[in-house]
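seq as requested:
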Amino acid sequence: MPTQLDNDIHRITSAVTAPGQMFALKQVERRGVTMPAFVNAPPSVAHYFAHFCAEKRDTLFLVDGDLRLTFGEVYDAAARVADGLATRHAVRKGDRVGIAARNSANWIVAYMGTIMAGGVATLLNGWWTGEELAYGIELCECSLVLADAPRTARLEGHKHAAKVHVFEHGRPKEGLAGLWGEGDTARRMLGELGPDDLATILYTSGSTGHPKGAYSDHLGVVSGVMNYICQTAMVLQILTERGEAPTVQPSALVTVPLFHVTGEIPVFLQSMALGRKLVLMPKWDATEALRLLDEEKVTYFVGVPLMSYEMAMHPDREKYDLSQCKSFAAGGAPRPVEHVGKIREAFPNGYPLLGYGLTETNAVGCGNLNENYMAKPGSTGLASKPLVDLAILDDAGRALPQGETGEVSIRSVCNFLGYWKNAAATAEAYTADGYFRTGDLGYLDEDGYLFIVDRKKDIIIRGGENIACIEVEEAIYAHPDVAECSVFGLPDERFGEVPAAVYLVQPGRQLTPETLCAYLREHIAAFKLPVHLWEAHEQLPRLGTQKVDKRAVKALYAGQSQAA
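struct tokens:
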């Protein structure tokens, strides 16, 4: 039965999407299917920057350590970078420009400058090894990579065709000096960029091994951002009606990587329209997060589920004034049900929230919030209105009745266009009528709330990072002493899930887990390394097809991880 909050959301959605209103809708065609889009959407991400940064020019935007920059200062710096990219580095519309760096003000300026120059912002995973970074650069044919010193060092000795420009963190004019231009490229490109031009590429770890480059046009990215703005506007109106809205400038603590879709869309890009201050944290630390929430009067927190819980359970929590923080959001992985009540109890002025979206959907999917989340803590919530069409499909792409479990599938104008240079994977990802198959299995309850029960794809989600089991297996098999292996996920209280692996060596060879782990560390990012690594002394269990029986292997070794 719909709650009062559901009724309020429906009421406000109907009002703000009505003809003539800010979020009025029109119909567009994507993948041969007609679906809703926003009438007032800016034609490109560059136009979005120009409008909202001008509107909020003198408002504080970024806090990066001691550095504090307004929206106007950030936009002006990005315009300089856009011109430098065009005039000094020959970037043209559609060129892929890789960004490989930790979170910082200059990461944001580099992203904006790339978009404003007409380039495609290609967000390389800052945790990758040099080998993985080079693969991502080559896959998406980057002509230029903007990298900070640590990622540049990792790339040394790894073959790729891109020019690498090293930038520093700190004040944009100094840190991005080699990208500084004086011309009007940004203004000129506003006359050339439109909804159908490519905007971004983000990398996603699917079940088929190496990361894939998910590319989106400006329409998809802008629509994803505006769908979040619409939702936030609805929530703020409800809080205002209840007398519970923040009384300070909206602000968010940035604890998630900006190269992830959560950091990019709902956190970074949405903040421009909201006039929201972003407080950057280069590395997660619960004590420092509590200090910043207090000192900067943060109103919105989002991170992987363990972050909110670590703050809620922190022994010094009550030393800090967190009364302005109204939302403690999580995404990227399921939040344990028992954590929901504990977070609400620890932060009585705010509510826990849960979002569900994917790289391929530009972060748009479902959301569960406030008292509805308390009532259904095991659910990822309702489809995000007004753009998302959510369906539970069988293997043939047919919709299943309410309550039946099938593949969670999402259709919206926000969805990505495809995987770079991988038409087969793109075709497999979509149904004939335009639904993106998420790889998650779930069902809808009688109120339309989504419950995810399993994953169809062989993926491990470690603290919000997707890890393809086959990618780790391929890295293990690359060691000459390995005969066979199996990689799977095991539950973990802190990260939700961690990778584990079992391997068998070639006859007459010796390979300790420590030696194998040291080898893997040179080839795959640290977050992909198996936390549990066992050597088998006989052939791994087999299916009738003679493939390794991963379920049997997992069942056999899971008890050993608990005993350890």
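The chain is about 35% helix and 25% strand.
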